[in-house]
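Subject: Sanity check before I submit

Could someone independently write out the structure tokens for this chain? I want to compare against mine line by line before I put it in a report. The sequence has 160 residues.
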Amino acid sequence: MSKVKLDEIDHQILDILIDNSRIPFTDISKRLLISAGTVHVRVKKMEEAGIIRGSSLNLDYVKLGYSFIAYVGIFLEKTSATDEVLQALNEIPFITVAHITTGKFNVFCKVRARDTHHAKDIIFMIDDVDGVSRTETMISLDESINDKKRLMHRIFNELN
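---
Independent answer below. Compare away.
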């Protein structure tokens, strides 16, 4: 698969959209001193190339009462059960991210909970999934880095 050529305007558009994916194209055009049509065409080009995939909404889980974050490493009885286990994990709404991994764990999950008691219940739900042999849990004390821009800037610099 060939890399898509992005220029400085594309980079600036992505920068703005990372901060606020709902910003109107007219606002982007005013900030970059280009036409809204140009913004539309460039965003469409990046969507068609698969660089931009949809848009996302960032929720403040603390304000919603879900301030507890845990990471759960899952050991499977058999790796051949991975798909079935992932389907079952997908039914637990408190698991917000799941990765198939190499190394110590077969699957690694991010869990959002109200508190430690709720997290315990979620971990027990995970333990009860057929195919899971055991879990190891790490509690997040603070999310120190959550920066979508630094990597994008690095990738952009490598492309130029």
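---
OP: Matches mine. For the report I'm noting this point. The helical segments are 8-19, 25-32, 36-48, 82-90, 116-127, 149-159.
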